[in-house]
Write a structure and sequence with these properties.
This protein is an alpha+beta fold. It folds into 2 domains: 116 residues; 203 residues, paralog of FGE (formylglycine-generating enzyme). The strands form 5 sheets. The protein has a 4-stranded mixed beta sheet. The protein has a 4-stranded antiparallel beta sheet with strand order 2-3-7-5. It has a 4-stranded mixed beta sheet with strand order 15-14-13-16. A hairpin with a 5-residue loop joins strand 2 and strand 3. The N terminus is likely disordered.
C-alpha cells in the first residue's frame, strides 16, 4: 500500500489539471486547484464560489479519466466544503481520499471538475427532465446474478429525454446529418425507432449535442432513489387492471411497440415515460459485473468494440422480466433481433 501511494505522488500534482465550471444560472465556481499531499493518497482541492443572490449551494466534485471528454467518476470519499449548505466564499477546501474511490486506477488523463448548484437553474431543455444529483439503490439482491449485489451509487445531476427517440426523429436525423447510419425501423412516426446498432444510437445523441446514458443514470431515472422495483412502484404490471407498460400479453391494443408516452400511469418518479416495456434501450456502459464502479473502465468512451449494457424491457418481454434493475448485453454491430431495441439520450447540465 505504501508503494501504491508513492506512485500516486509521482503524477498527481503534475498532471491533474482542473476546470472551473459555471452552473446554469447563478453560482460561479472559479480558481480551482488540486494537489496531492506528498506521501499520501489525499488530494486537496481548493476553489472559490459566489452566488449573487446569497443562496446556499450544493457543491459537487466530478472526475474525468479521459482528459475531460466525459466526467463519469463521482468520488464519495470527500470532506470539507462539499455537499449541501455551502455559502459563497473564497479559499474553500475539499479533501478527497482518492485511493478509496479509484484504487489502482491512475492515469495522466485524469481531470477534476467542481460544480455548484443553488437549486434555481434554468428549465430543462425541451423534451427532457432533470434527474437531480444524489445516491440511489442500484441492482437487486433478489434478481438474477447479473443484477447483484444491490448497492448504493451516487449519480451527478443530468437531463434525460422523457421519451424514446421516435422513428420520425431518426429519419430527420438521417436526412439532415448525411451520416452513414442504419435505416432504422418503426411502426409509425410517433413510435420508437428500432433496429439500430449502438454506434447508430451514439451518433444520433452526439448530433443533437447529447450522449447515451450510463447504466447507472438509466436505472436512477427509471426507479428513483428509493429502490422501487418498477418506475411506478412495487406493483408488477400484471397485478393491476391499470396499463402501465407495453409488454407481451398486455392486451393493450398494440401488437408490437406503442407510440411513445402511451402509458402515463407508468412514468418514473422523475416523469420519464416507457422506462419499462416498449423497447429495451442502449446505454454507454461496457458490460461488466457488479458492483458498479464508473472508474473501472466500464465507462471508457474511447472503447468502440466491447459489448454494451442494454436496459429496460420491451414489447416482447413478459411481466416477469419488467423490474427496473434488469440488465441485458448486446454486441455492437449485429442488427439481427434489434426490432425490440431503441434508445434515448441524456445531457449533463
Amino acid at each position: 500500500m505504501r508503494h501504491a501511494v508513492f506512485l500516486i505522488t509521482t503524477w498527481f500534482a503534475a498532471v491533474f489539471s482542473v476546470q472551473s465550471v459555471q452552473a446554469q444560472k447563478a453560482p460561479v465556481v472559479s480558481n480551482v486547484r488540486a494537489a496531492q499531499r506528498e506521501g499520501t493518497s489525499l488530494v486537496d482541492i481548493a476553489y472559490d464560489v459566489t452566488d449573487p443572490d446569497g443562496d446556499l449551494m450544493t457543491v459537487s466534485v466530478q472526475i474525468s479519466s479521459d482528459a475531460g471528454l466525459t466526467y463519469t467518476i463521482f468520488p464519495r470519499s470527500l470532506s470539507g466544503d462539499v455537499g449541501e449548505g455551502i455559502a459563497s466564499g473564497s479559499g474553500k477546501q475539499i479533501v478527497w481520499d482518492a485511493a478509496q474511490d479509484i484504487p489502482g486506477v491512475w492515469s495522466p488523463l485524469f481531470r477534476v471538475r467542481v460544480t455548484a448548484d443553488d437549486g434555481t437553474g434554468a428549465a430543462p431543455p425541451p423534451g427532457m427532465v432533470l434527474v437531480p444529483a444524489g445516491d440511489f439503490v442500484m441492482g437487486s439482491h433478489v434478481g438474477r446474478e447479473a443484477e447483484a449485489p444491490e448497492g448504493t451509487v451516487y449519480v451527478a445531476a443530468f437531463y434525460i429525454d422523457q421519451h424514446e427517440v421516435t422513428y420520425k426523429q431518426w429519419q430527420e436525423f438521417r436526412v439532415l446529418s448525411r451520416l452513414n447510419v442504419s435505416a432504422g425501423a418503426g411502426w409509425g412516426d410517433t413510435y420508437p425507432v428500432t433496429t439500430l446498432t449502438w454506434s447508430d444510437a451514439r451518433a444520433y445523441c452526439e448530433w443533437v449535442s447529447k450522449r447515451l446514458p450510463t447504466e447507472a443514470e438509466w436505472e436512477k431515472a427509471a426507479r428513483g432513489s428509493g429502490g422501487a422495483t418498477y418506475p411506478w412502484g412495487n406493483l408488477s404490471p400484471g397485478e393491476s387492471q391499470v396499463k402501465r407498460a407495453n409488454y407481451a400479453g398486455a392486451d393493450d391494443g398494440f401488437a408490437s411497440t406503442a407510440p411513445v408516452g402511451s402509458y402515463p400511469d407508468g412514468v418514473s418518479p422523475y416523469g420519464v415515460y416507457d422506462m419499462e416495456g416498449n423497447v429495451s434501450e442502449w446505454t454507454s456502459t461496457i458490460y461488466r459485473n457488479y458492483p458498479y464502479n464508473a472508474a473501472d473502465g466500464r465507462e471508457d468512451s474511447t472503447d468502440t468494440t466491447s459489448d454494451r449494457v442494454v436496459r429496460g424491457t420491451s414489447w416482447v418481454s413478459d411481466t416477469a422480466g419488467q423490474p427496473s434493475y434488469t440488465r441485458g448485453v448486446r454486441g455492437l454491430t449485429n442488427l439481427e433481433g434489434l426490432n425490440s431495441y431503441g434508445f434515448r439520450c441524456v445531457r449533463t447540465p
